[in-house]
Amino acid sequence: MAVYFDHRIDASDTMGSPSEIAWHRIHPLLAVAFVSTSSTPGGCVDVYLEQGEHIPNAHIERPFQPMLISWHPSKRVLAIGWETGVVIFWSEQGVDEQQIAAGTHRAQITILEWSSNGTRLVSADKAGVLIVWRVDQHGRVQGSPLGKQDYGKQLTHCIFKPPAPGEDLVQLAKAAVSGDENALDMFNWRKVGKGDAPFKAGLQQGITCFVSVTDGTVYHVSEKGKSLQVLHTDGPIRKLMYMEGKEILMVVTEALFLSQHSVGVDGTSQELMKVKLSGKTGQKADIIWVESGLLITATGEIGIRLWDLDKDENYALTLDEQLGFSTGEIINCISYCESKGIIAAGTSKGQVALWRKTLVNSLSGCKIDGKDQWKLQAPIDLEGNIIQIKVMKWGSSKNLLSVISAGIVLILNEQVMSAHFNQQVAAMQVAPNQLNLTFFSSGNQQMLRTDMHVKGVYVTKETIVVWNGKHTTVFEPFGPSLRNAGSFPCDSCVLAVHEESIYTVEPNRVQVRTLQGTVKQLLVFSEMEGNPCHLHICGNFLVVGTDTSHVKVFDLSRREAKPHCNAKNLAEHVPNLGRIASVKCNSNGNNVSILINRVSEDPNRLPYAAGLAMLNGTPDSRVFFYDVEMDTLNYFDFETGRPSSESCSMPRVEESEMEKAHPEMSELLGRYPVNHFWDQNEAKLFVCEAVSAVSTPKQSKRSANTETNYPEYKVNAVVVSFFITQEHGLLLQESFPKAVSHEALMGLEVPYYYFSKKSGETRNDSEPMPGAPSILQMVAKRPLRDFVGLEDCDKTTRDAMLNFSFYLTIGDMDEAFKSIKLIKSEAVWENMAKMCVKTRRLDVAKVCLGNMGHARGARALREAEKEPELDARVAMLAVQLGMLEDAERLYRSCKRFDLLTKFYQASGQWQKAIENAEGFDRVHLRTTYYNYAKHLEALGDHHLALSHYEKSDTHRFEVPRMLLEDLQTLEIYVNKTKDKSLWKWWAQYLESQADMDSALKYYEKAQDYLSLVRVHCYLGNIQKASEIANETGNHAASYHLARQYEARDDVRQAIHFYTRAQAYNNAIRLCKDSGFDDHLMNLSLLSSPEDMMEAARYYEEKGLQMDRAVMLYHKSGHFSKAIELAFATQQFNALQLIAEELDENSDPALLSRCSDFLIEHKQFEKAVELLVSAKKYYEALHLCLEQNLTITEEMAEKMTVSKDSKELSEDFRRELLERIADCCMRQGNYHLATKKYTQAGNKIKAMRALLKSGDTEKIIFFTGVSRQKEIYIMAANYLQSLDWRKDPEIMKNIISFYTKGRALDLLAGFYDACAQVEIDEYQNYEKALGALTEAYKCLSKAKMKSQSELEERLGQLQNKLTMVKKFVQIRRLYEEDPKEALKQCENLLMEPELDQTVRTGDVYALLIEHHAQQGSFEVAYKYMEEMTKKLPSVNVTYYINQQIIDAVYKAVGVPIKANIVMEKVRHNSAEDGDEVEEDVAEDSYNGPED
Fold first, then answer.
1. Long-range CB contact pairs, 954-958, < 8 A, 24+
2. What is the spatial distance between Cα 1263 and Cα 1273, in angstroms, rounded to a whole number?
3. pLDDT at 838 over 50
4. 591 vs 541, 631, 644, 962, CA distance in Å?
5. Contact 1452, 1421 (CB under 8 A)
6. Cα–Cα distance for residue pair 1265/607, rounded to 1 Å
7. Within 1118-1209, where are the H helices?
8. pLDDT at 1148
9. Do 139 and 75 touch, CB atoms closer than 8 A?
10. Are 424 and 387 in contact (CB under 8 A)?
11. For residue 807, which phi and psi values (nearest 5 degrees)?
12. Mean pLDDT, the chain, as a whole number?
């Protein structure tokens, strides 16, 4: 909790009225400009410190008014512009008026602006003169100006274009952390108070700025003073701003028009957008620009407006009267503190309004609108009308707010309320000079008032020490009050007390003082170890943290403090370490916990300057633990929920363990620690408070699963306790969300945690003593989980419970049992049972429930064992122990939404139950609505119950029951819902109350025609009832009316309405009784088969209209009776109709009888069907053959008896199938015959049938499937009859089938035929030789009945093979030795059986062609003549080319013989006519042979 201490500046009334205030950006220096209010004109400027103290040499007074004051961005240098054009500089060395020569400006100064790195200064006056000055490293203006421009018009605003970040910024920061002196000087790491200050690293060249003049023109000014017009607005400019990341210049005019302009490198611009801002025009608007893209405006209204330019949204923040603001209070001025995220606004009634920006964490799963990010704080009350407000950021500890109000200047110093708890004493600051003290050992409370503004407090059981950074006061208890035991000046910012000693700090040492302030010992630190800045005492040990990140522990148990260990340098082990934020040690002094701030590596996150970021840093998500004895440094990271790396002695939390403790660990993720304490007596017990952090991309990525499993919002702060030992490392003991009413964790002392309370939550928990003043209870305590119910236990029990808690945490249940075996408290066993929920140890939980005597819980746990999920069983244990939040989380984690719905209902969380059922458990949604409605009905909330009865779809019964005692409401509801069921119920109720007219009305609305007819009949309106029944056709109504007419002996009407009601049996009954035979037939046909049979018997018994009896028997399915009666009465037409409907399920005798009847009437096809149905297959086949009826596939299938049939033998079945196939063969249905032969097992006949079909594809398929020798041979023989020469596939199948059929002699014949084809058709003797070779191989392997025949065929084949082989060799020899080849040809011609194998013409052709080519035409002619004699019937041209023949005849001078042409004609006479004509045409020119 923070408050603002107000300090009035130390200024005399003679100075005049303050007109301008300005804070230094780095140092706590406030410059104030005063304007004289007396008759004598003039003014002055003074500089003050953070508490309003005036700096002695900082008074600059002149006989003219100061107009502008501007601080150097890093140096303690103040520039002051006066109305005469004079510019005066003030620094710690004094006033300097010579830096800018007098007369440089001759008019009022209107612009005085430093560049962001302090190397340039721009000054301008009302006459329009602008000058750019160079500034040295000490902040002094050097020499003549860099540039000068005269615009002729008053200059109003100036902003510098921010420099680009230096590339070596991060490296420079790291060097400074490592101790580099040059880097430290640049960042002013340790010399902030000596002049130099951090600066924003950037390029030193190219520093430019933008300036505006009164007519709305904006100019771009280079560092040399060269000017270029950038843009022009429609009116005077109110504010110039620059969006650094996007290089956009923004302009707000006096008319509140906002325009954005992109600016190029050369200064040119382009307008991007223009918009009118909301607000009062004509009022002086206060506008501030935040670097994060936020524009804030105050225009004299009751609120302020914010424009988020990045998100393109705007919203307004207004004052809240409930917080103490007045109605109609106007906001005059605003300022923004970026480090704290606070908007400060000054009002017209002397109040300061503060809006604090809340931290948003993506892990919360919620989206916060822009307006909701700002929370209005309680106002700060001042006096008068606040006209100006300034905010300054000082490191991370000082945030100063200055205001001008009622002619005075106030400095508001934000101070966190001091609080301390130690040795059962708690002190809590409630006002700047007031403390609330609570002594828990005695239960007393006291208020302590001091004469100083308290900035720190330290308490022990015997002393209370307060200090303000300059003075320290010691108080001691004295009876019921406190007395001042000592007071002394001391500049220490931190302080600690141990027994009779006070420990304070100063550079490089810790002072040990007496209670009166006398220094009795010095604890010295080296220059490398740094300056002490953190102190903490626990037990007899003091831990000191320094500004160079060193930690050192001292032992205070002796008369003098002794070092307990060497100083530990954290910077050597922690990368990017900024500074130590807090250190605490345990009671044994062997473990130190440390919180740190880390340095950001992102230059864009550096506020003002890199050095400032290094001074402040950002809170680290880790809490470090320094083990003094082992000299090791470990940590626990709240961002990831994991401890340090494997190299550390502390064990890591593995993934499986993380999942096991998921509910606890998930609450720790994405946080950073803010407070931490050790138990004052138990050395291994540590507690830490962690708050939600602003989300990072890493956290956002991890948040997807968290949002899915836990959609509820994440709490802002949690308290986590750990056991820390060398053996087991870091062990999570307990975690819980910090209560909303608690401000912060103050400490831990078993059995309680201690918290400070928030303002407004400080009611007294106990009744005050009579007559004693009521003191607010400022401190709250909460027992540790395992000490609930044991808060007042003795030390033995407390130690036993601590051991129990420790062993329970490490999972050693046996030791945990031993620790508490002598403790009889049910609370202990209950705590252990609750721990079993965390550890999921249901076996231990059963023992605990037994010791607690919790029979109901034990039974519930036993019944829950049937649930398959462990979490569901553990959730039931949690329910029985009252741990409802854990139970809810467990049900949700195991996705048992059905049990979660029941849990919500049982715990009275009906809204959650409904939401859960609607989202995840829709199976039980209606049941949930119903149960909630019953709950509401029990509470008397009938209206809401009625709504949920409707949602559960049970309102038709439940609502009338619920509202039965309130008939008026019930009637209104019935009429409103327009539900037919409710109308019917209401009509029945009215009928029971004898209100027949109203009942009829509602029966008609409900369309309950039966009830309408019933009531009308009851009232005697039978005619009206008849009309209703006829109009609606309602069966029930018609039946009721028919009964009424039957009772009145009106048979015709009764039959009519029985018929409309489809109660045909009743109508038939009346027809038979009354002799209405005509109606009887029609009704019987409409009725059931039973009624048809009864009517048929009726007609049969009467002996009349026998055709109707036959028809009814037929329709009722009694065919035998119908046929018998038809034969008896000679009703052949009816008989034919019946026969058409007979099938195989009919009686065989009946089928046979009907088939004979059909044959007599020449209905052969139907007769065949009936014979087949009667299983008289031979008769059916005979009839088919006799009458030449085609056997269809359907008929054949019906005649095919299945193999499993027991009625016919297998032989009979095969014979029948063959008979069917024979019939199909006769009818030419070869495919069907093949199928039946196959089913009969006679594949040979099947193959013959298939061969007759000529379906080659099926023949090949069937052959491959059958795999029988005979079938292979038959198929091959068939395929030879095809044109196998042109289809290689057929040829391949022939060879394959002969081979598989082992018919090698036939295969040899096929190869022989192939060889002959190759010779005759293609003259390819090589292929013929190959075919003959294969033929010989096959025949030599063949087995024939006649061995002599085989030998004869082999001999013939051998001769052919020899002849062909000789001729092939001659052809080959001809290529090498033509003479020898010709000689062998002549020898070959002498072979007696040559022409049987080798064509004689081919041999002659070889001889003739050779001699013709050699020019021996005479020899060629001789061979031609021989050839003609040997082959008189063969055309010579068949063997020899016509051109060669012509050439030979021509050479020997013999005309072409006519017989050659004639022979050719005769040779081709078997060919088609066209080819004959062509051949004749070709040879006709040769003339006849003779």
1. 954/926, 954/930, 955/979, 955/982, 956/981, 956/982, 956/985, 958/930, 958/933
2. 9
3. yes
4. 11, 10, 16, 69
5. yes
6. 91
7. 1119-1128, 1132-1140, 1148-1160, 1164-1173, 1177-1186, 1193-1199
8. 62
9. yes
10. no
11. -65, -35
12. 77
Over residues 509-532, the pLDDT tens digits come to 999 999 999 999 999 999 999 999
Closest Cα to residue 693, out of 757, 621, 758, 623? 621
Distance CA(910)–CA(931), nearest Å, equals 9
Q: Contact 182/172 with Cβ under 8 angstroms?
A: no
Q: How confident is the model at residue 1387 (pLDDT cuts 50, 70, 90)?
A: confident
Using the predicted structure, report yes or no on whether residue 700 has a pLDDT greater than 50: no
pTM, 2 dp: 0.53
Structure tokens at 1301: 């059929």
Indicate the SS3 state at residue 1360.
helix
| Average pLDDT of the segment spanning 896-921 | 92
CB 578 within 8 A of CB 599: yes
Region 1319-1338 average pLDDT: 74
What is the rounded CA–CA span in Å between residue 122 and residue 1141?
116
CB-facing half-sphere around the CA of 1470: CA atoms within 13 A = 1
- Work out the pLDDT band at 1146, boundaries 50, 70, 90: low
The pLDDT assigned to 563 comes to 93
**Mean pLDDT, rounded, for 531-547:** 94
Other beta carbons less than 10 A from residue 348's beta carbon? 17
Backbone angles phi, psi at 1201, to 5 degrees: -90, 135
- Is 220 in contact with 207 (CB distance < 8 Å)? no
Most confident of 287-291, 634-638, 843-847: 634-638
Per the model's pLDDT, the better-predicted residue between 1355 and 118 turns out to be: 118
Higher per-residue pLDDT: 896 or 772 = 896
Closest CA to 276 of 257, 259, 295, 255: 257
Contact 1072, 1099 (CB under 8 A): no
| Amino acid (one-letter) located at 661 | A
Whole-Å CA distances, 303 to 377, 390, 1229: 14, 18, 103
Tokens of 381: 């009350």
> Can you give the pLDDT at residue 1087?
72
- Residue 1114 and residue 1089: Cα distance in Å, rounded? 10
- Please work out, in degrees rounded to the nearest 5, the angle formed at the alpha carbon of residue 822 by the alpha carbons of 820 and 823: 65
Give yes or no for a contact between 706 and 756, defined as CB atoms under 8 angstroms apart.
no
Under the banding of pLDDT at 50, 70 and 90, the label for residue 360 is: low
For the ranges 206-210, 486-490, 808-812, 1213-1217, the lowest mean pLDDT is seen at 1213-1217
1259 backbone φψ class: left, alpha, beta (φ>0; ψ -120 to 50): alpha
Q: In one letter, which amino acid is 95?
A: V
By residue count, the chain amounts to 1490
More confident residue, 1037 or 600: 1037
CA distance 47 to 411: 13
SS3 percent helix, strand, coil of the chain, rounded to 5, is: 40, 25, 35
Q: Which residues contact 137 (CB under 8 A, 6 or more apart)?
A: none
For residue 1141, the surrounding DSSP H or E stretch is none
Look at the block and give the residue holding tokens 């004689």.
Answer: 1400
558-562, 731-735, 1293-1297, range with greatest mean pLDDT: 558-562
Please give the structure tokens belonging to residue 959.
């609502």
Which residues are CB-neighbours of 527 under 8 A, at least 6 positions away?
508
Amino acid type, 1371: R
Percent of residues, the chain, with pLDDT higher than 70? 74
Q: Name every residue whose Cβ is closer than 8 Å to that of residue 618 and which is 6 or more positions away in sequence.
A: 578, 597, 598, 600, 605
Give the span between the Cα atoms of 2 and 340, in whole angstroms: 12
